[in-house]
Design goal:
Order of helices and strands of chain B: HHHHHHHHHH
CATH class of chain A: Mainly Alpha
Number of helices of chain A: 4
Helix content of chain B: over 70%
Shape of chain A: globular
CATH superfamily of chain A: Winged helix-like DNA-binding domain superfamily/Winged helix DNA-binding domain
CATH topology of chain A: Arc Repressor Mutant, subunit A
Order of helices and strands of chain A: HEHHEEH
Shape of chain B: elongated
Strand content of chain B: under 5%
Number of domains of chain A: 1
Radius of gyration of chain B: 24 Å
Helix content of chain A: 55-70%
Number of domains of chain B: 3
Radius of gyration of chain A: 15 Å
Oligomer: heterodimer
Distance between the termini of chain A: 16 Å
Structural class of chain B: mainly alpha
Distance between the termini of chain B: 50 Å
Number of strands of chain B: 0
Structural class of chain A: alpha+beta
Chain lengths: ~110, ~280
């Protein structure tokens, strides 16, 4: 039985991958990234919103994301985008995930 | 409501060591988010958010610090290789400007690089073990920083001791050699100092994640598990075996009939003494 707690723990393990995938489409600020995470997962991936920001900062420190201030809707917002290294990391994570998902699918169906 | 939340978050960030420009940036991002969502409750408890920042940033910084220390020490290793490979006729120790200073510097010149090398290897082993952890236990982060710090400090001490030895015997050495030694040893200190400053800057972070620091047996678990001898939980047995291996290398390197036996005994004693003095501090026992 997959409980909410288990789902939250599983999400933590894949959060970096998910964040990189969202930012890969277009540069985005924190709120937009979190909103996209919820929207694309139809509300399945819901974390305390503030805990996503440490991951964004860490990914930036690791050189996978870069960020800069931009002004939009009359506000200054920190916009994140993927670096070349982040793009390579995302491609590797996608390959791993597809292989893993295929294997799990083959076992459980 | 948003202002009150931001005040609480600012206080919590300060309590985990996040201050200055980094705190201002986090608060600006949080404010932007909250003006959009208008629900501080969904952002999470300020203490939880601050702790998460400290845990993730400290873990990432400690890992980078460990690898960075090894990179920063590489020029020092090259300096040693150059200086010790240059042919030279050294006068007797009594020819030094100050014999006690020369003896102390010469011993430091031999011991400090070994401590630096060992601490650097331990830092890498720890960083490798924690590589996939987003928020490592606070004691593990502290241990990793400590190993990197000791590696850098011992590396800097080694280079300074080289400079002291050269100074002590400068009157007996060619001028070009003195100048070259000072130049490359001094230049090798620059990356060490830069990395030490970076390590110090991130040292203000106070991660909160619970858990154990782990030790060398956790860092190198796959290696220790393959050994026929059980070493986990028996650190002194590990120390004696390691010291014996180092002594064996010293014996063969110095020549069995020449300086080998003396070097082997000195290395055996030095490893055991280092283990006794720094073993607990560096997570060896």
């Amino acid at each position: 039985m997959v409980t909410g707690a288990v789902r939250a723990e599983t999400l933590k393990g894949h959060l970096d991958f998910l964040l990189l995938a969202i930012v890969a489409d277009e540069p985005a600020h924190g709120y937009r990234i979190i909103d996209e995470l919820k929207r694309r997962s139809a509300g399945t991936f819901e974390l305390p919103e503030g805990t996503v920001y440490p991951a964004l900062h860490r990914l930036e420190q690791s050189g996978l994301l870069t960020s800069s201030w931009a002004t939009g809707s009359g506000r200054r917002r920190r916009v994140y985008q993927l670096t070349a290294r982040g793009r390579r990391a995302l491609a590797g994570a996608r390959r791993d995930w597809r292989g893993f998902a295929k294997a799990v699918e083959a076992v459980v169906t | 409501m948003i202002e009150r939340y931001l005040e609480e978050l600012a206080e919590e960030l300060g309590s985990v060591g996040i201050r200055g420009a980094q705190r201002r940036r986090i608060l600006a991002e949080a404010e932007d988010h909250l003006r959009e969502s208008v629900d501080p409750a969904r952002f999470g408890d300020p203490a939880l958010v601050a702790a998460r920042f400290a845990d993730e940033l400290a873990t990432s910084a400690a890992g980078r610090g460990a690898w960075g220390s090894v990179v920063a020490l590489a020029p020092a290793g090259i300096t040693y290789a150059i200086l010790f490979s240059m042919p030279a006729t050294w006068p007797d120790i009594t020819a030094a400007r100050s014999v006690p200073v020369a003896v102390a510097a010469a011993m430091t010149m031999l011991l400090a690089p070994q401590i630096s090398f060992a601490a650097g290897l331990l830092a890498i082993a720890g960083a490798w073990r924690l590589r996939s952890q987003v928020a490592a236990p606070a004691p593990a982060v502290t241990l990793l920083r400590r190993r990197a710090g000791v590696a850098l400090a011992a590396g800097a001490t080694a280079l300074l001791s080289v400079m002291v030895v050269i100074y002590e015997f400068a009157a007996w050495l060619p001028t070009w050699r003195v100048a070259l030694s000072f130049s490359i040893a001094g230049a090798s200190l620059v990356p060490i100092a830069a990395d030490a400053l970076a390590l110090r800057r991130t040292g203000a972070l106070r991660p909160q994640a619970a858990g154990d620091a782990g030790d060398v047996f956790d860092d190198l678990e796959p290696v220790f598990d393959r050994l026929p001898l059980r070493l986990r939980g028996r650190p002194w047995r590990f120390c004696l075996l390691f010291a014996a291996a180092v002594a064996g290398v010293a014996l063969l390197g110095g020549g069995v009939l020449n300086e080998g036996p003396r070097n082997a005994v000195a290395e055996f004693v030095a490893v055991c003494a280092g283990f006794a003095a720094l073993g607990r501090y560096l997570g060896l026992r």
